[in-house]
Amino acid sequence: MRRDAGPLLVLIGLCLLVGPAAACPEVPVAFDPGDPSLEVAPWRAPAGHWRSQRFEQAHKGFHKAGIALEREVERLFRPGKGGKPPSNAAIQRFLAKTLYARPPALQVSGDRFFAPSAVLWAWADSACRAGQVLEAHTALKKLARFRDDAAVRRHLLATALRLGRVDEAATLLRNLPPEGFLSPYAEAVISAGRGQLAHARERLRVAEKAAITPAERSLVESLSKGLAPSEGGPAR
């Protein structure tokens, strides 16, 4: 007699069933698409692709610009041992065109440089819709340093669920107000990841009743397939 798959296989199955776009909630974080920081080099070109919903191109542009800036920061502020230290003039030129520019191309938290908040959101949204969910999750975590509100945490929860990060998703869920669909759906995925399949099915039934949009109904259907007991196997 066949039994249900174990918790790990169930979780892997759920991640495969739920496509990348499911990690991108339909309600965006409230940022003005005309935010001036999106018009600053080097973010201007990828931001234009993002506004035009060319998400693959936007993601590639944000990724390339971000990598270039990270390398410049490493070169100027964290030179390797034995390397020639940068001149103060070079550091000041970099700060003048990024941090001190108006609007700035970078912002600072502690001793680290980050893209502006509106850029981080556009980057996360583009990466998510391009299927780069881990990169979207990373950008959202950076955004949360500057804007730790429920909207950002909801998106972090969605990407954590998509990545199969059950414990992180559970922590995020505890710090969010209850929502009709997202809360029971997240509870279902978390319970499935922990092998609590009967509880997962019960929470999914609640989510199914609250599902309104086609995307929500699609998520319920996909998760139902992953939680269906094997033929002849006991429900757990």
- Cα shape: elongated
Biggest sheet features: 2 strands, antiparallel
Give me the secondary-structure category: mainly alpha
Query: What oligomeric state do the depicted chains represent?
Result: single chain
Strand order of the largest sheet: 1-2
β-sheet strand percentage = under 5%
Number of helices: 11
| Whole-number mean pLDDT | 84
Number of structurally distinct domains: 2
Helix content: 55-70%
Strand runs, count: 2
Based on CA atoms alone, the radius of gyration comes out at: 21 Å
Distance between the termini: 14 Å
N-to-C SSE series? HHHHEEHHHHHHH
State the low-pLDDT regions, or none: 1-23
Keywords, please?
11 helices; single chain; 236 residues; mainly alpha; two-stranded antiparallel ribbon
What does this entry look like structurally?
The chain contains eleven helices and two strands; from the N terminus they run ααααββααααααα. 59% of the residues lie in helices and 3% in strands. Helix 5 (117-129) runs antiparallel to helix 6 (133-144), helix 7 packs antiparallel against helix 8 (166-174) and helix 9 packs antiparallel against helix 10 (197-210). The longest helix is centred in the first third of the chain and has 23 residues, at 55-77. Strands 1-2 form a two-stranded antiparallel ribbon.
